[in-house]
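Hey everyone, long-time lurker, first post.

I ran two proteins through the pipeline my lab uses and got sequence/structure pairs for each. Pasting them in order. The first:
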Amino acid sequence: MSLGGVGQTAMFSVLGKLVARAWLPCLAGWVLLLIIMRLIAPPWDEVAESGQFSFLPKDVPSNRGKDLFKAAFPKEVMGSNIVLVLSRQDEIPIYEDKDFVEHNLKGGLLQIADEEGGLADDQRGRSVIARIQTFNDEGKGALLVNGYQNAGLVVIDLTVEFLERRAWPVVYAVESLIDRLHRENKIPEGLEIAMTGSAVVGRDMRRAEQESANLIETWTIWLIIGLLLVIYRAPLLALIPIATVFFAVQISIDLLVLLAKNHLLTLSETNRIYITVLAYGAGVDYCLFLIARYREELQQEGDLGEALARAIGKVGGTLTASATTVICGIAMLAFAQFGKYHQAGVTIPLSLCIVLSSALTFSPSLLRLTGRYAFWPLSPKGRTSDRPNSKPSAWTRCLRPMVFQGIWEKIGQALERRPGLIWLASVIVLVPFAAIAVRNYQYLDYGLANDLPKDAPSLEGTHDLERHFPAGLIGPTTVLIRNEAVDFTTSEGTRLIESLADRLEERKDDLHIEDIRTLAKPLGISATAKDIMRRLERLSVTEASRKLREQALAYYASDAGALKNHVTRVDIIPNLDPLSHDSIDNFERIESALRSEQPAALQGSEIELFGATASLRDLQQVTTQDLKRIEVVVPAVIFVILMILLREVVVPIYLIATVLFSYLATLGMTFALFWLLDPAGFSGLDWKVPIFLFTILVAVGEDYNIFLMTRVKEEEKSHGPIHGVTRAVVNTGGIISSCGFIMAGTFASLMSGSLVEMKELGFALAFGVLLDTLVVRPLLVPAFLILLRRWQGSGRGHVVATLPTPPASM
């Protein structure tokens, strides 16, 4: 490559000659590698880890709470649940359906548990079903009926996290049971059954991700094929980049699966989406640049092999340098703490390395295989260099990968005449959107349930649940209090917990608390619970009271080793959806109140919290810290690469500034668009959008800048510092814009998925790449270069320290 050095150019010249001569063994090698990998690699789903919170660092507060819970209550299970909401619109109380619930519904659920290996409470480790609770159960069963007694709950507690795939068979089995009861007319007339729960929400989210991944992959391929056909108008020439990237992506995925199988790295289900989209976008771009140089060489060299060898020799360094920028930029995600970000920083760069190798070897081998038939139906009539005054042949026009070539001539002329005006106008247009991004930078949505498609089964069940019960019932927050000086099983220890619960109850409206269940009040503070306790006291049912106390001690006080009697749990049920954005802020208030409202005797206690909302809060904090870290390391590493390649200081700083400005403008446009689409329901962009948008946009933006600067260095030698810049814009305008449209189309395929996060990220990436392609690279960058060169030539100073640069070529 021109910016890399003579040694690198010689290396790619050797590679070009080798591929041109040994193209058949090269093709056979790639095909054989694909077949072998397909045969030995297991499916992605078998090794990919599911879940969201499982990728959090081990030392976050919610994980510390889980660890303490496991130590203090080893016989208890913690995981997700399936909630069946039984409701009536008539005047018949829900208790009239108790026989159906006990025999048909619970009986069917117990049968499912038996088929899974038995309840985990009875035979631990054999089943993901821990227990089944209905409103027929003694004691706590009354808490599963609403105040109007027209709705009741059946709760199936599971031992796995709500996003884990192991919960799926049980979810599907429960759905089948309800469908069977409907078909057999065993459900009482007027009784409605809806299904929700954290495990059902998790299943729907994962299923939506799978469907999105399949749609995205399909749309990606067809969009690229369509764009390539429009660009080249030659079917084989359009299919060569697709075949090149297809082989590379499949081999990459199989390699990653094998590495994960041998515990050398971890994979998540969504990781495959980003690998596919980025690999196709970048890989096709690399092939386009190779074919563009191949076209130029064919006009000068009639022999296909020689032209191909020269093309690889001249463009190989450029492709490698630009790919290195993208690879190193995205690799900075490996410094993130959140597991999914970290693995993206490992898996995507590894895949892009394979894609680059395929573009430099497999793609030219296909060009040699197809020969001149690659350009069918337009066939070559001879070299244009033999007829200097003749018009370009149809074949030559076919090889020009972009229409509107005349536009770039006009842009180049305008840049030479008014670079300052063009620069200022471009900035003024984008500044408002950048301001929107800065103002709303922290306005992100961490509500996982908001990602669900509108037709997800769990949403209907959640709406039914919220009509009759507090939304937080499916995801309570568990508080663990540890104090070595307090025996919580004594009357004094129980009194202290009761005092804390009473203080929280006084603030329950402010803290959005629906119920608090403790050792002192095991049934909670609801009106139903208080009524049950009053009846027990009035009837002097000592046996029932004693049994309730025993159950409370077993459930709320630790009985494990050194923690025995010194750890107690408090279950807090909020009236907010535990997976919503609002629940995070409310969780912070509850945590603060727990520490400030402690009785004096409990001061200094270790307090740990866990649950869905606790993990969601940690997810917010960890990913926010990751974003701040990535915002520093990605530009820093790309700046170093640009300095090495360009042998300058000021220009790399400006190039970094342009892509950061482009990122802010893109983020602001995305905020504005999705707010306009749903002003009432918009609660911020998905939390994953900024970090992926920043990393990819900065890396890809500099990728295109490197292609431009490569040509600038070459053209400056022949046309001078000013005209050389505009000639570079004209000569690279078509090919870089074609690559930009390909990349934008690839990213736009993300919008074909059903998940909100994919739609937002797909739009943002597509818009950002187009902004970089049509504004930053052809206007902001060359306008600045012209102004800089003129200032340098005026004698007022030399800001840029330029080192000797070898002959350039792209």
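...and the second, right after it:
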Amino acid sequence: MVVFQLVCFSWTTSRGQQRGVPPEREVIAVPVVMDFTELAQREAAAPARKPERRVVPFMPMPPRHAVPAGAPIRKAVAPLPPAPNQPSSLAPSPAPALSFLALDDDDTSIPPDTQGAVGPNHLMVTLNRGVRIQDRLGSALSTVSLASFWSSTGATGVFDPRVVYDPFNNRWIFASASDAQSATSSVVVGVTQTSDPTGKWNLYRITADSGGMTWADFPSLGFNKDWVVVTVNMFGNVSGAFQNSQIFVGTKSALYAGNPATFRSFTEPSGFTQAPAVTYDNALGTMYLVDDFNGNFGGNGLLRISTITGTVGSEAYTASTAFPTTANTWASQPANGADFAPQMGTSNRIQNGDSRMLKVVYRNGSLWAAQNAFLPASTPTRTAAQWWQFKSDGTVQQFGRVDDPTGALFFAYPTIAVNAQNDALLGYSKFSASQFASADYSVRLASDPPNTMRSDVLLKAGEAVYFKTFGSGQNRWGDYSNTVVDPVNDLDMWTIQEYASSPNFPNGDNRWSTWWGRITPQKKRRGQLISQ
């Protein structure tokens, strides 16, 4: 391990940004090779004892920051779209072209940490309870536990899985955290050797904190032409308090080749869930990271952009290069982080997290982002699915919400995908006192009026009351979802979402489950794209 001294920096008003800093340390990780099909066969032949039920810890967002003097703020002058119960001139969002089960609850983990990705021949579902490979019609090909997937790395207690598909190199990228609240906390990263996720994987393990004082939570995953980037939130092993954001930058060529790979790490004291962009531009040399900076500062809500630049082996991190800003403010969470979203048939509410950044995509020269927004900012009574489009200099191009100002409908855990035509799909969970918790989505075509999404579509109806805490005191949901572009045609988009399923387990526990939907936003006819 090569250790670098951290170069401290301060805000420079005249330049409008901080100076880039080199990494604090380099970690060279040696891979182990795992064959997914062989692993699934071994697990099926000798099933492991069912693990003890666990609640993946929810580590709340720390207080948000004051905006630095001289920060490059570019405010959106964007009207909000009409409420869902008001007439709209837009055509409705299209119905799903395909819709089927992803992976269901086995009563071992809450929340599921809903996550999945799509390749040319497969779907891959990664949840806290396990990993499933499906064909593109939904048939299950192989399923293993999350623990066994990563077991050859030596990591234990693995949680918070994230997965993406790199269409430029035809590889799957998978990351998780392990050993929560422990000095042995680590980040694990895997890449496939081919486009087939049922084949061989190169698996890497990185110690989260070489001093053993903090542990890694809530990994976010992105890539560009040079790097695979994983960010985590670091918390004290003793105090439990938030310490900093840690950014691990892996050399993509080494990972894909199965060589010992260098991960360079940067620390951002003021960051929290800095989401690295999933970058659909194979010539772009900059990695953009976006985080929720402050939802209500001086009558504005702000995100923050930071960057990783330089050549491979000489990377530099620059914090706070721009602050996309809107006058439409939001709160970071409900009072005391309480269970918040209503559901039919019970007074028990569902916890729907906070406003941390859930997904960032770089597409067609813009960054697109999605997050929860708790409204109104002063005293939240509902949750909206909030989305953005902005330039890398922070200029806001679009800002919108799937929201019900009456407070009857709650929307949460949104993620966004953007296709080659700049059509967008926003997938999310929907809650109300008149329905069970469901999986939903909205579409916008590139030709639609700015700042608008088309009507909400029910992807999978909730089937039952959901209340399951395993004694934790929180009725957890999420902690995220995923929405992605189909690499086959770069036009269709998929979303994987959680819903409340049935029947109850024999012990009386309620069930969550996850569901896939494929949405075709535009029809192709006689060689031309025709809007739905």
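Reply from user beta_strand_b:
Welcome! Quick read of the second one: Helices lie at 36-45, 146-150, 252-257. The chain has a mean pLDDT of 92.
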